[in-house]
Every structure is written in structure tokens, then in C-alpha cells.
Amino acid sequence: MNEVAVPRKRRKIQGVTMVDVARRAEVSPSTVSLYLRRPEAVSAKVGDAVHAAIRDLNYVPNLMAGGLAAATSSVVGVIVPSVRNAFFAETVAALQRDLGQARLQILLGHSEYDQASEEELVRTALSWAPAALVIAGTDHSPSTRRLLESARVPIVEVWELGGVPPVDMAVGFYHEEVGAAAARHLASRGRRSLVFLSGRANDDKRAARRAAGFLSAGRELGLPVRHINHPAPATTELGGILFSRLLKENGVQDQVGIGCSNDLLALGLIFEAQRRQIAIPDACAVVGFGDLEFASSCNPALSTIKPFGDLIGSEAARLILRSLGDGEKREHSIIDTGFGIVHRQTS
Amino acid sequence: MNEVAVPRKRRKIQGVTMVDVARRAEVSPSTVSLYLRRPEAVSAKVGDAVHAAIRDLNYVPNLMAGGLAAATSSVVGVIVPSVRNAFFAETVAALQRDLGQARLQILLGHSEYDQASEEELVRTALSWAPAALVIAGTDHSPSTRRLLESARVPIVEVWELGGVPPVDMAVGFYHEEVGAAAARHLASRGRRSLVFLSGRANDDKRAARRAAGFLSAGRELGLPVRHINHPAPATTELGGILFSRLLKENGVQDQVGIGCSNDLLALGLIFEAQRRQIAIPDACAVVGFGDLEFASSCNPALSTIKPFGDLIGSEAARLILRSLGDGEKREHSIIDTGFGIVHRQTS
DNA sequence: GATTTTCATCATAGCGCTACGATTGGGAGG
DNA sequence: CCTCCCAATCGTAGCGCTATGATGAAAATC
């Protein structure tokens, strides 16, 4: 005996669907879909009718349905250690700007320098079948790396080159070279001993690599060189603290050249020197990293090494868009965006 | 005549689907789904089998399919003017931290203080059928507001209270009061004339409101008060420029109290004062806004007004989670997170 | 021992959209 | 006037998952 199927109660997701638009424009849903994806493929008359219907009904397409059907979504997962960090914020901003042109959105995650939460974020991002993935650094946990390798999407690792080979593509620069450049610069300014100040070098692998580059370049130059690190994040306050510690341990030693793992640290150092009436750059020269926006206006103006965070973002976006256009062929491009030495008054 | 249907060629999205997991665990797909959503609802034996299958196959669920079927997604759209702005970065970080606990992801957009792109971002965010929406400010274009009003999701407007009534919920503080507090504080420190320095007050409505509050409080106090704005973003460099302009126009006038639309501006002012040997706070007192991390360590340490950006984020997250839990009843909560006056050496 | 209740598991019908191939209709060529 | 062709439009079958109600077995009640 065949009962007539009772229609189930279904929750309605959306007020207005593509079917409603199609009905209103008196075309088929396929045509509406086509108009949305390739407007040039429908005739002007039909296009206008669909457009009008969309406006009238205030239709908002459902990208989840679209993504599911099309087997790929229009999000790009972006995973950085921290958005509060100005460096990554700049790259994220550039990414959104350039990817937005191609109607790609950013699904953001920050790991707070924790590998376990990084893995979680990668897993989540992949759950959205993203069009691409951007992730800071190349140093991931083995299982994260496996996840990335088995994902069939373009992946761009940013802000770091060298070390582990990239999973797919990479845009960044060599942090050891940044450290080395700072050390050489200080030596060229007549400094006879070198110190590198850093925060959180245990978690922030890139800061650690800058430190390593600084130290080995210093040794190559035959100069005495030491490294003072503190597990706390590299803030202005920590800059003052580390400088104080240095002074206590070494006395006020003239002609020292100090590299800082970022400009915030350098700024704190400058403030502390002001308080202690230590002359910069005479008694002590300083080079920062980042060229943060206060660097040019502080007092004395901070010599620093400038990464091109915006460029990293836009190059990453370019690689992604090219990958998506090219279809499947992975090129494994690696782009070195380099860095600039900005010589101001502290060195 | 009935032809046998030829199976179409379908692109395969995913390597491993829930069906594969089910087959491997020798249960039905429904059970796998149930295990994923409510692990306590399946027996321990079956749960373990499913878990093992997921591990072995390295299964990553497809959240688009899930969201489509469940009529809601696990993303929260977050739209801010700029992530490069430390204020919003802090709130975004708090949001991700707290929403992440409930397995919600952040779909980020920044409008660069442009209303048209804000609307575009809202539209895109809504296309993902988000679980909620967080948007900075209450001042949106009419069509954006309409979009927000017709969206059936919890919406939290952050960083601004007063002005236009919120669409749904709001977490923030009154910027006029911040300005007024700065003016009153400077007056209480014996300042007989007041100036407010700001950048980009035409685009940044919140800065404009702080300026307005400062000016009217100053007038209420019977003090001469002026406002100097520059259309460029409020940076350290601009702080020096605006201060120079003030000095040129007014001469070095003792006892002036200066409010700045943010700490970056104040920092630039301090640097410029150092260069010109103008004593702070004697000749000129300064109050900033933001309590950015250099404020406590700069020299002299900066008096400032501290918004609680982290608290804004976590309160917004709390409201969202409560809304999602409560089902449909909208409460239109408005939370005033207030601000703190941090009195240091510049005033 | 027979019945009811509970609990764990399953089968099914879509969620809203896109890709694919099929269909239509009008102009060009014969 | 009849093909043929191309462009514009349409019909259909899922994409992978979840919500719902159904099923059967075990536990609890009579």
C-alpha cells in the first residue's frame, strides 16, 4: 500500500532564492546563475531583466550553495600568528585589497604563535574548500605540513624564505640576511661590539632567525657579539627593560651597536637612553626592524630595516590569482621581496 | 522508449567524504554526522570506530555542505575600517579568541573608511549565511543599514555608542565623552586654553565625535578652544606636523592643553617638542587616546584615554554566543564598555 | 512473559546552487 | 525554401552534508 509522501517541514534558509529571481525575471534559474557568473554570456535584454529582479527582491546569493556545487569556494584562508602585529596586518590588508578585486574573501585566523592552534586553523580553513591558503612562515608542525601538502589548493607561505622548503609557493625574504645586514651596517658605522635584543625569540622563529643572522655576521666580522632575549613579546616597554639589563651587565660601554628584533624594541631603547642621558648614536647605535610608522619621526630618527609587508601581500595575491587562472599546474614559485636598509639618525 | 540514464561526469570536490568515513567505520553516514555534531549521542564503541576512521582517512568535513544543509554557517562576518589600526586589531583578536571557543570562524573585511566598500563587504558577508555579523560603528549608508536590518542574524555594532540607534546590539562607548573627559582633565591640570589635534576626522567619524566632545566641553568650561584637523590618517608624523602648525599660528603659548585624536599623533607631538626643546607638561600638556603600548614607556610617559578594545571584542562575542543560544529572541542589548583616564607625565 | 519506554542507529529528502548537455530559434549559406 | 550552425537559454542531476522521523533492539515496567 502506497501512502502519498507527506512533504517534510523544512526550515527556510533564505528569504529570496535564485528561483524567486528567475520567476520574477521570467527566465530559468540557470540563466540567472549564468548572468551572475558570466554576465556577458546572456543577452542584454535578459541581463537587464535579471538585474532588475535581483534589485527588486534584494536577492543575496548563497555562496555556500554555490561553493558546494562549484566544488570550490571564493574564500582564501589567511593564517597569521597575530593581527595585532603591524607586519601581518599590513600583509592582510594588501591581500584583502587585491583578492577583493577578484571577489575573493578572507577567512582569517591567528595562531598566537602556537603550532597546535595553527593546525586547528588550517584544518578549519580547509573545511571551507578555500580557493587558496596563505599562511605565515614555513615552520609548521609535521601534521600541519601533511595537511597542507594533501590539500589540493594553491598555498602561499609568506614572510619567510629559506629553512624548510615551501609546500607550494612562497613570498618573503631571508631573515638571517636581515640580521646580517643590521650587523654589517653597524660595523660600517664604526661599532666595535654588537648586541642583538629580541623578544619572544623562542616562539617567533623569524625573530630568532634575524638574531642568528646578526650573530653569525658579527662573528664573521670579528666583533664581540651577544644576544639578549626575553620570552615576553617584543614591545616598547621590553625595549627599555632589555637595554637596562644590557647596561647593568656591561656598564655604559661606548661604541656598542645594537640590533633590535623590531622597531618597538628599538623605540623603547631610545626612550630609556633619553632618560639615562645616553647619547644615540654616539655612545650607542641602534638599528631596528620594521620601519614602523614612528621610525621616521622619533627622536633621533630610527635607522631600521624595512620589510615590504604590503608587497608580500600583493605578490601573494598575484600568485594566487595566477594559480587559479592557470588551472592545475603548480609552479612552486618563490618570490624574494627583499628588504631595505633605512639609514637615519640612530646609527 | 526509455534510455538508461548515463551517469554524468562529476568533478569530485573532496578526497574523502563522510560516506567514506561511514563505510570504513561500518556505520551509516548519519551516525558519522551525529558523532561530529554531538559525540555524546553515540555509543562509545561506535564513537571510537568513527573517530578512528576519521583519523585513518584524514577526513576533513566540508563546512559548505554542512552549512547549506543546516541553514546556517559557522562563520561570523567581521567588518572593520582597517586591520592596520591597532584598536580594531585588538578587537578582532579578542573576537577570534572567544568565538573560536564555539568553533566559529571569522570572515574578515575592511572597508578603509569607505561606505561603498562597506556595503559590498556586508553583502558578501551575508552571502555566507553567517551565524552573526560584527561591524564597526553605527554610521552606515542607508542601503547598508537596510541590508543589516533585513538580515536575520545577530548583529553587533562595535566601538561606537550614541548617534544612530543600533540595528540590533551594540558594544562600545561614547566618543564625545572621551573628548570631554580629555578637555576636563586638561582644565583640571590648570590649562587655560585648549586645542584638539586630529587626523582624518572627515572619514573617521569616531575621531570627529571625540573632537566634538572636546570642543563643547572646553567651551562649557569657558576656555578658548580650537580644533586642528588634517585629512591624512593620524600618524606619528602627522602629530609633529600638526604641532608645528599650531606653534606657527599661535607662537609658543604657555599653559596650553592639547588633546589628540589618538596616541600616534600625541607621540609625534612629543617628539617634535623634544626637538624644539618645549617642555612637556610645563609649556604644553598632552592627552592622547588609545593607550597604545608605547604610551607608558615614552618620555615623558603619555597621559591618555584608554578604550577597552579587547573587552569590546569579548563582550561582542558573548552577546553573539548568547543570541545563538537563545534562539530567536533579539534583546537589542547595548553595552557601554566605557574608557579609562590614564594619567601619566604629559599632563 | 507481554507490553511499554528508552536509546542508538539508520534511511530519506532536500539545502540553493552550478556544470553539463540538450534544446530552441533565427540568420547564413546553399 | 530548406538545411546547417551558432548563440542564447533551459532542464537535470548532483555537490556533501544535516534534520527529521522511522526502525529495531535493549531496558524497564506491568
List the helices and strands and how they pair.
The structure is a homodimer of 347-residue chains.
Chain A: H1 18-25, H2 29-37, H3 44-57, H4 63-70, E1 75-80, H5 86-101, E2 105-110, H6 115-127, E3 132-136, H7 142-150, E4 155-158, E5 169-172, H8 175-188, E6 193-199, H9 205-220, E7 225-230, H10 236-250, E8 256-260, H11 263-276, E9 284-289, E10 303-307, H12 309-326, E11 334-336, E12 339-342
Parallel strand pairs in A: 1-2, 1-3, 3-4, 4-5, 5-11, 6-7, 6-8, 8-9, 9-10
Antiparallel strand pairs in A: 10-12
Helix pairs in contact in A: 1-2, 1-3, 5-12, 6-7, 8-9, 10-11
The structure holds a DNA duplex (30 and 30 nucleotides).
Question: What do you see in this structure?
Answer:
The structure is a homodimer of 347-residue chains. Chain A is of the alpha/beta class and 347 residues long. The first copy, chain A, has helices at 18-25, 29-37, 44-57, 63-70, 86-101, 115-127, 142-150, 175-188, 205-220, 236-250, 263-276, 309-326; strands at residues 75-80, 105-110, 132-136, 155-158, 169-172, 193-199, 225-230, 256-260, 284-289, 303-307, 334-336, 339-342. In chain A, strands 2-1-3-4-5-11 form a 6-stranded parallel beta sheet, with helices on both faces. A 6-stranded mixed beta sheet of chain A has the order 7-6-8-9-10-12, with helices on both faces. In chain A, helix 5 (86-101) packs parallel to helix 12 (309-326). The radius of gyration of chain A is 26 Å and the shape is elongated. Mean pLDDT of chain A is 92; it is low at 1-8. Chains A and B meet through helix 4, helix 5, strand 2, helix 6 and helix 7 of A and helix 4, helix 5, strand 2, helix 6 and helix 7 of B.
